[in-house]
């Protein structure tokens, strides 16, 4: 009986890993297709975070001994990836990287001019 | 914000470290005496680490673990994960669609959260939800890069971007 449950968990784990790798692929396609730094950062952060999360949970389900470790690593990734993304975006803005010409509004520039 | 004693904060840091240590060392086939040995080592190391870092880790010590906050935090997790999944389908649509439907811009919204950790959590949530990325926080103003600008108005954009997050985070952190 427990073997059946383990088998089902393994199959679910493989499904999770497939979904995760699909999103990681999507993130890299997004890096090629998007026009400027900020839009690239958007796709890269979101898709890689969920992709890595999904792969880690999948590994945890395939071998249950890894589950606590992989959950802790997943929590660290969720907490740190967005901070890294905002720091990079802000740094590139301060360094003078322009927005894409199709952009409609830039409130941050107004703020900097008010200073 | 109430001031809490140093011992309280130290205990909180110690608890966090020992929980993470147990998560990393536990495995199903482990023998009991072996786990006890590792637990003892973990206590010693956590005490050392907590002694160095308790003053930077939290402002409110054990009050972070009050049932009300933990309960709202548990309710917040599924909302957050669902927003992340939606964000990824949004990314998939924008990347794979041949027309590349983007209309980016930087908008400004305001929040009424006061706690810095709460602000950080809201910024993280915004970064991982559909089409938005936090670029800068100044006091209560967030500058957000939005991949498809629906509205340039401060309040309207805030309602779309923040969604339910602010309600949950207010209960967790205030």
Mean pLDDT of chain B: 81
Q: What is the overall silhouette of chain B?
A: globular
Structurally, the number of domains of chain B stands at 2
Strand order of the largest sheet of chain B: 1-3-2
Number of separate domains of chain A: 1
Count of β-strands of chain B: 3
Could you state the order of secondary-structure elements of chain A as H and E? HHHH
Structure commentary:
The complex is a heterodimer of chains A (115) and B (174). Chain A is elongated. Chain A starts with a helix and ends with a helix. Chain A has one domain (1-114). Chain A is 82% helix and 0% strand. Chain A is an all-alpha fold. The longest helix of chain B is centred in the middle third of the chain and has 30 residues, at 67-96. Helices cover 61% and strands 11% of the residues of chain B. The radius of gyration of chain B is 21 Å and the shape is globular. Chain B has a three-stranded antiparallel sheet. Chain B has two domains: 6-65, no CATH class; 67-173, no CATH class. Chain A binds chain B through residues 23, 26-27, 29-30, 33-36, 38-39, 41-43, 45-47, 49-50, 53, 64-65, 68-69, 71-72, 78-79, 82-83, 85-86, 89-90, 93, 99-100, 102-109, 111, and chain B through 20, 22-24, 26-29, 84-85, 87-88, 91-92, 94-96, 100, 102-108, 120, 123-124, 127-128, 131-136, 138, 141, 143, 145, 147, 149, 152. Chain A: One of its GO terms (molecular function) is sodium:proton antiporter activity. Chain A: Pfam families: PhaG_MnhG_YufB. Chain A: This is Monovalent cation/proton antiporter, MnhG/PhaG subunit.
Describe the secondary-structure layout.
The complex is a heterodimer of chains A (115) and B (174).
Chain A: H1 2-33, H2 37-62, H3 67-94, H4 107-114
Chain B: H1 6-25, H2 32-57, H3 67-96, E1 105-110, H4 116-127, E2 132-138, E3 141-146, H5 154-162, H6 165-173
Helix pairs in contact in B: 1-2, 3-6, 4-6
């Amino acid at each position: 009986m427990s073997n059946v449950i383990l088998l089902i968990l393994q199959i679910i784990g493989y499904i999770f890993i497939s979904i995760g790798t699909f999103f990681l692929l999507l993130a890299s396609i997004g890096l090629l297709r998007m026009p400027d730094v900020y839009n690239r950062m958007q796709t890269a952060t979101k898709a890689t975070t969920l992709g890595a999360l999904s792969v880690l949970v999948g590994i945890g389900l395939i071998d249950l001994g890894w589950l606590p470790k992989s959950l802790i690593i997943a929590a660290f990734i969720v907490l740190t990836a967005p901070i890294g993304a905002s720091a990079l975006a802000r740094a590139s803005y301060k360094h003078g990287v322009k927005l894409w010409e199709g952009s409609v509004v830039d409130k941050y520039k107004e703020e900097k001019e008010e200073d | 914000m109430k001031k809490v004693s140093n011992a309280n904060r130290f205990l909180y840091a110690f608890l966090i470290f020992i929980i993470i240590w147990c998560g990393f060392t536990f495995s199903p086939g482990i023998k009991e005496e072996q786990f006890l040995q590792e637990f003892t080592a973990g206590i010693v190391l956590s005490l050392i680490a907590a002694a160095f870092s308790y003053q930077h880790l939290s402002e409110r010590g054990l009050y972070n673990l009050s049932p009300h906050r933990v309960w709202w935090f548990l309710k917040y997790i599924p909302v957050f994960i669902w927003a992340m999944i939606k964000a990824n389908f949004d990314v998939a649509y924008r990347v794979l669609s041949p027309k590349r439907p983007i209309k980016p811009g930087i908008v400004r919204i305001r929040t009424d959260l006061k706690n810095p950790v709460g602000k950080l959590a809201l910024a993280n949530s915004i970064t991982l939800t559909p089409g938005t990325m936090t670029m800068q926080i100044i006091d209560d103003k967030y500058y957000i890069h939005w991949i498809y600008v629906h509205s340039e108005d401060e309040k309207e954009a805030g309602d779309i971007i923040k969604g339910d997050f602010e309600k949950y985070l207010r209960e967790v952190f205030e």
